[in-house]
Write a structure and sequence with these properties.
Layout (H helix, E strand, L loop, with lengths): L23 E4 L2 E5 L4 E5 L5 E2 L3 H7 L3 E11 L4 E7 L7 E9 L3 E7 L2 E4 L2 E3 L2 E2 L11 E4 L2 E4 L2 E8 L10 E4 L4 E2 L5 E8 L4 E11 L1
Antiparallel strand pairs: 1-2, 2-3, 3-4, 5-11, 5-18, 6-12, 6-17, 7-15, 7-16, 7-18, 8-14, 8-17, 9-13, 10-12
Length: about 210
């Protein structure tokens, strides 16, 4: 392969045997390795692989899901709960959560809460709308909670000192891998009357 003509003519195994099914196709700016269906691309100038992140890939695999819900008119000091449970299987739930609120409040994340009723079931949606695979994560709103469980995370939205006229957003920039056959709880407690809150769960199953 001459430097002035970066055309990949083929891929070879450790013994030097050419593998025709993995031939590369030269294109301006980058080259591709293909098995005839899927492509891997490498940028020639930067020498970097053209790729997507794993969470994006899991959507392509039909294993990425979103479940969201909201509530309005929360009173000062009132709490809103969302309850979800990981399956008792080898499947692992890799989850990120984002919470938005119209006014100040605090959002909590708990593991292994005690509930006497699950609440109203919510339906997670497969992010690939061509894929009918259902989520194995069960999600509910408004469970009956007798103990919050072990606190894993907490975030304050907005402030009352001085009081803001708007709320804010709390987003985890890392994922949690939920424990097998274990329940979890999101709790938002409003600081002021008339608060609206939204929670969005984004996750993939692997």
């Amino acid at each position: 392969m001459a430097a002035a003509n970066p055309l990949i003519t083929g891929t070879y195994d450790a013994l030097g045997n050419r593998m025709p099914a993995m031939d590369a196709m030269g294109r301006a700016g980058y080259f591709q390795l293909t098995d005839g269906v899927r492509l891997a691309e490498i940028d020639i100038i930067e020498g970097a692989q053209v790729r997507i992140d794993l969470a994006h890939h899991m959507i392509h695999e039909g294993k990425g899901y979103t479940c969201d819900d909201y509530a309005t008119g929360l009173g000062a000091g009132a709490s809103k709960y969302w309850h979800f449970k990981a399956p008792n299987t080898a499947t692992r739930i890799h989850i990120n959560a984002t919470t938005f609120a119209s006014d100040a409040g605090v959002v909590y994340f708990y593991e292994a809460p005690t509930t006497t009723a699950d609440g109203t079931a919510l339906t997670p949606r497969n992010n690939d709308r061509n894929n009918g695979t259902a989520s194995t994560l069960s999600v509910w709103k408004d469970p009956t909670v007798t103990a919050d469980g072990t606190q894993l995370g907490v975030a304050a939205l907005g402030t009352n000192n001085p009081k803001t006229r708007f709320g804010g957003e709390a987003k985890q920039n890392f994922e949690w891998i939920l424990k097998q056959n274990t329940a979890y709880l999101f709790k938002f407690t409003a600081a002021n009357a008339g608060t609206a809150v939204n929670v969005e769960l984004e996750y993939y199953e692997a």
